[in-house]
Amino acid sequence: MKKTKVVGGLLASAGVATVAGALWWRQQLKRPTETALLTNRDSLRQKEGWYFPSLQEELPMVIVIPEALVAGEAYSPWVSNLAKVGYPVFVLDSLLPSQAIKKAEAILRRFPHRSYILVGHGIGGELAATLANERLLTNDARLKGTIYLGALPLYGENLQSMALPALVVTGSQDKKTSGRISFQEKQLYPTNTTFVSINGGDHLGFVSVCGHRPKALPAQLQQKQLTEILLQWLEQV
């Protein structure tokens, strides 16, 4: 009887800790701007996140894994631009990073015949690399490439074995990547990787969130340049 009470108490404590952790993450979440929320109205709310559909069936679907503590709606200004030219886009709604890969896999099951590209911002880039590696191990020919926004490989994980095109976009004012990717760090990415730096850009300039104070380049201009960079790279994939 005592053992049952102890186990029950432990489970209850674990449940409280989980709820408390989720509440803490939600409180720390960087909220989207009004402009981002207005743009996000073009999307369809799905259980995995926000879907920006397209009628173009031959272009790959783009799956965006957000940075930790950044609301998915904050990506809508530049994501909507990709959808307008024909790329369907899914922005994951992942309050906890551990949920992101599961949600991405659920999307892939929903679209079993659609080619796709993984995009990750910050920690989302690390998760995108992990998921890409897992998909390659299953010989998933639908995966056409990976894009990293202000993201470094997780724990120095060597990704060179990935025979896929990749794009790395950083901001010169991004503290998380020291403004640029060093020669040693470049060796950790897939061999077929294109590196682009946005002059004056910073880590939160890839999204539209409240309270962001850019040091040089306004987020709107950074995302405009990002859109041009992404479209140019996507045309070559």
TrEMBL record:
SUPFAM superfamilies per the UniProt record, alphabetical: alpha/beta-Hydrolases
Pfam families, per the entry: Abhydrolase_5
Domain Alpha/beta hydrolase fold-5: 62-208
Gene3D superfamilies: alpha/beta hydrolase
InterPro entries named in the record: AB_hydrolase_5 (IPR029059), AB_hydrolase_fold (IPR029058)
Name listed for the protein in its UniProt record: Alpha/beta hydrolase fold-5 domain-containing protein
